[in-house]
Amino acid sequence: MAVVKLFGTWLSPYVYRVIWALKLKGIPYEYIEEDFSNKSPLLLQYNPIHKKIPVLLHDGKPICESTVILRYIDEIWPQNPLLPADPYDRAVALFWIKFADDKSHLLSKLYRTEGEEQEAVVKEWLEMLKAMEEHALIGGKRFFGGDEINMVDIAFCMVAHWLGLIEDFAGLKIFEPHKFPRVSSWIQNFKSVPVIKDNLPDTDKMLGLLKHRREMLRSKSN
Amino acid sequence: MAVVKLFGTWLSPYVYRVIWALKLKGIPYEYIEEDFSNKSPLLLQYNPIHKKIPVLLHDGKPICESTVILRYIDEIWPQNPLLPADPYDRAVALFWIKFADDKSHLLSKLYRTEGEEQEAVVKEWLEMLKAMEEHALIGGKRFFGGDEINMVDIAFCMVAHWLGLIEDFAGLKIFEPHKFPRVSSWIQNFKSVPVIKDNLPDTDKMLGLLKHRREMLRSKSN
């Protein structure tokens, strides 16, 4: 049987995308925790362009970029498909996956900015939530693709879990459930899926690390 | 027969990606030129999230985002495939397509910036060219995927044609062929493909428009 290895860090939403996909497919894998501050020679060898996690190693061959890894996993292991079978529905799913991916930078921007700059980031978050609410989650669906979780839900994981953490950390309130009722229901549905619920980073540990990082950044800039 | 329509503007590299893919597949289509300064109600209806071209309309259903459109075209019309058949090779191709797409913003940044800010953009261009030269075009290939043009070549069209135009316009020299011999050969190979050669925006018209836009931007900022 082919050997599957995943290089990640315990708090990255990009890594959780891959963990969930592998678990939804029932694929056993070896997980290798990378050190942010001291990247391993293997990581640099497998992802020489971006030098970033996640990297999936399948039969000794590396695949980089979380959304590319998700597509690969779905093609190699077709059970519990993560994309719709119909080509048009698949194109719509890929549109939203790209949308989610293109907005991912907004997460770290939230706690790395202040004042007017942060206000602009918050505005972008609200536009993103509005697009999800008014265009992607219409029609009374439990998930983006209908009754089952798929790759679009996984791609939007930042909104379901990481945003709330950053809000707590930064003392912001961006996501107000009554303003985005469909997104709010979707978050509940998403986090009630056993594979998701049972595989999320520890909140206290994450808040502790964010505080540590902020102090590091501030001491550097002083 | 299904009706295929393409909403675009005559100078956009994102639109040319779609034009080339349709022509490589031999798919007849109706082209609708959009006005940058006065977007049509149809465009806003078909792409309510980004309000941008290109939009492909197939059997009345809209598909947005050039790389999503390319995937859709390749699935609907399988002749002259634009992605490798092997799942791992396909993942590598998708990695580079995402890489090219994530760098696309560097094009307009080149002529919208000055001084130190422009120097940072030039540095990013050089890093991109280095990655193409040292990682993507190795092994004596004519194109990114081997002997035939594929979706990766199409995705990198900015480098093959638009960069040179912006260099002329901005009085910059970023791409020096002797520093990137593989990229240089690839550009020649790419632009010798009849579908590419016969379908490129007019250089003089493009330079004229860029000058006009710059004047507009300057008069606004004064």
Automatic annotation (TrEMBL), chains A, B:
Known role: Is involved in the conjugation of reduced glutathione to a wide number of exogenous and endogenous hydrophobic electrophiles.
Name the record gives this protein: Glutathione S-transferase
Domain GST N-terminal: 2-81
Keyword Cytoplasm annotated: yes
Organism: Gossypium tomentosum (Hawaiian cotton)
Domain (GST C-terminal) ranges: 86-222
Subcellular location as annotated: Cytoplasm, Cytosol
GO BP, sorted A to Z: glutathione metabolic process; toxin catabolic process
UniProt KW Cytoplasm keyword: yes
Record's signal peptide: none
Stated family: Belongs to the GST superfamily. Tau family.
Enzyme Commission code(s) on record: 2.5.1.18
Entry's Gene Ontology molecular function annotations: glutathione transferase activity
InterPro entries assigned: Glutathione-S-Trfase_C-like, Glutathione-S-Trfase_C_sf, Glutathione_S-Trfase, Glutathione_S-Trfase_N, GST_C_Tau, Omega/Tau-like, Thioredoxin-like_sf
GO CC terms: cytosol
Membrane-crossing segments per the record: none
Keywords of the record: Cytoplasm, Detoxification, Transferase
Superkingdom field: Eukaryota
Catalyses which reaction(s): RX + glutathione = an S-substituted glutathione + a halide anion + H(+)
